[in-house]
Amino acid sequence: MIEHGGDPARVGQARLRSVLSLLPAVLPHRILNVGCGSYLSARTLHGARPGWTLWGLDRDGYALRHARIAAPDLRLRLVQADAIHLPDLLHTRFGLVLVRHPDLHRNRATWSRVIPALRGLVAPGGVLLITVYMAGEVDLLRELALPGPVQLDESALTPVGLDGQDRFAFAYNG
């Protein structure tokens, strides 16, 4: 678990970049961002893992269209679907599976089913990375009792403000 203070506007994507820098870069060179929305983190992920194929999944088709328009040069692989059906949709594994700000407190039952299933999409040696805003969500995440946590060096992370993104980051081995 990680928490720091700072200006969230200044460090929004920098915080994610610093977390990614602590994770192994393993084969296959694919990233899946579950609940990507308009995929605001696509450029950050591309910069942290150049050459990796970026996949995004969201049930909001409008957000996915916006992602495609905002980053046409990244050739994003976007899938419109509900995350609950992921194991049936994707027949591949990923070096990194990212769930960024899943709103666990609002959709607890759904995420309680989805998050444990995501580990099946992580390649051996890969990582499932989950970031949340609020301390209450940390407790909900801990209730899932995911095995294989990866220790992240908190001193190496960019600070985040009280309302900043990626305040709490958890990584799990695939």
Polypeptide structure, described:
The protein has helices at 8-20, 42-48, 61-70, 86-89, 108-118, 135-143; strands spanning 30-34, 53-58, 77-80, 94-100, 122-132, 149-150, 168-173. The protein is of the alpha/beta class. The chain has a single domain, classed as Rossmann fold (3-Layer(aba) Sandwich), CATH 3.40.50.150. It is globular and about 35 Å long.
Helices and strands in order:
Layout: H1 8-20, E1 30-34, H2 42-48, E2 53-58, H3 61-70, E3 77-80, H4 86-89, E4 94-100, H5 108-118, E5 122-132, H6 135-143, E6 149-150, E7 168-173
Parallel strand pairs: 1-2, 1-4, 2-3, 4-5
Antiparallel strand pairs: 5-7, 6-7
Task: Summarize the entry for a quick read.
With 174 residues, the chain is an alpha/beta fold. It is built from 6 helices and 7 strands, in the order H-E-H-E-H-E-H-E-H-E-H-E-E. Helix 1 crosses helix 2 (42-48).
